[in-house]
């Protein structure tokens, strides 16, 4: 029979078979320890991979959804109406010292983002000071193409060319109607999609004859340029 030798050291116990060296007896134990280490590393790798895979999903869930951008240059309305305070110089009236104040109205039909047709009506009656001869007044109706675009944030810009007719009353001009035209532009501060505050300036030419001309020269035209300004409220619909 084989002789089995038991050796005990502290809490450890080993058995040796006959003809087996102590080193050979310890080999299975080393293999078991190495296998345990491999299993531990493999388990640790799996546990580390799980949070690494879930982290992108958690980060994606924390990203706020992008808000839709509303393009201001593509409105759904087709018309713009303007009403406000107006001013014009009075160079066609001889010896006039002060310009006239009044009202300005405009309606614009928009086609697309940048183009429209505008029609303007002006009425000026009240002088900015005393000293003008007579009681002059100016009425004009002008129309033409208008170009507009967004400049920055809530601020839009526009430019137009105008042509029409003008009447100067209270001065006895002959004739007191003439062709008029010019160009100008301005800025709009948008309070909302429908309302805005508009400021504009124009340079308008007319061709009235001089006052107190002889009958032979009564219809002789003389071109005059008048500066105009307006400030008021814009409504889109």
Structural summary, described in words:
By secondary structure, this protein is of the alpha+beta class. The protein has 2 domains: 6-62, no CATH class; 79-236, Porin. It has 1 helix and 10 strands; from the N terminus they run E-E-H-E-E-E-E-E-E-E-E. The strands form 2 sheets. The protein has an 8-stranded antiparallel barrel. The protein has a two-stranded antiparallel sheet with strand order 1-2. A hairpin with a 3-residue loop joins strand 4 and strand 5 (115-127). The longest helix is centred in the N-terminal third of the chain and has 41 residues, at 22-62. It is elongated, with a radius of gyration of 46 Å. It starts with a strand and ends with a strand. The model is unreliable at 1-20, 22-28 and 67-74 (pLDDT under 50).
What's the helix and strand layout?
Layout: E1 5-9, E2 12-16, H1 22-62, E3 79-88, E4 100-111, E5 115-127, E6 137-152, E7 155-169, E8 177-190, E9 195-206, E10 224-236
Antiparallel strand pairs: 1-2, 3-4, 3-10, 4-5, 5-6, 6-7, 7-8, 8-9, 9-10
What is the count of structural domains? 2
Q: Describe the largest sheet.
A: 8 strands, antiparallel, barrel
CATH class of the largest domain: Mainly Beta
- What is the CATH T-level topology of the largest domain? Porin
Helix vs. strand class: alpha+beta
Shape: elongated
The low-confidence runs, each spanning 5 or more residues with pLDDT under 50, are 1-20, 22-28, 67-74
Work out the strand percent.
over 45%
C-alpha termini separation: 113 Å
Order of helices and strands: EEHEEEEEEEE
